[in-house]
Predict the structure.
Amino acid sequence: MERVNSTLLTEFILTGIPYPIRLRMFLFVFFLLIYILTQLGNLLILITVWVDPQLHARPMYIFLGVLSIIDMGISSIIVPRLMMNFTVGIKPIPFGGCVAQLYFYHFLGSTQCFLYTLMAYDRYLAICRPLHYPVLMTPKLSTLLVVGAWMAGSIHGALQAILTFRLPYCGPNQVDYFFCDIPAVLRLACADTKVNELVTFVDIGLVVASCFSLIILSYRQIIQAILRIHTADGRRRAFSTCGAHITVVTVYYVPCAFIYLRPGTNSPLGGAAALFPTAITPFLNPLIYTLRNQEVKFALKRMIRGPETKSKV
């Protein structure tokens, strides 16, 4: 035992997700397209919010632009490494690379949780207190809220990374997952991980549960306010601005709860569920917000038709 403990790991091997060998090329191309479309879609949303004067001055779309940055970051951290699983040969990830991947994933992921909550609060103020909205949700306040979300996410990510990698790792080095995440990495630790598992469960559970509860509370008030709107067009417009947010929150939170709020489990379904917050949700967010949000669609049309209009003038 002393001989094993004297040699600490310098790299990990990510086993990836199980797949039939005959689908290797198909899966590589599939996730490559997912990654490219994710980057392009979120970049398009970011540019639209930045360029359109009717959007970038409104807190809701400032939050949407930040969400696009987070989605691009999460996709870049996870998907390229996942694609390497579909190439020939073993490609280990350095120990420091594993630490960085875990930190940035939980940093951006928790920031996304906080941002979803801010977006729900913004919709609550806009629909339930429309007359006070310009005073309650100023550009300065929205900026401070975004900065606070980034800082809280950074602290959360650092806490999880420090707790995970303070333990000794002396072998084996095969991570039964497609990226360095807490449950999979902890199984390789050469020490008791019960404290880590408890802290992870409580910490992530607290973040997810508190954010999700605040979102549910906000939308309870929002739905009640919408049902009091007398005109069908007014109700439709209100539901349009909220429908996209409700959809992405559901797609994000359900898999996260399945992965992290089941301590001590090791199910293949966990890897499949992890594909949603890491690869699928960042890809779907631009589609959901452009298909369900009329203002974003109109802004895209104005941006596309802008050069044509100028040339005619």
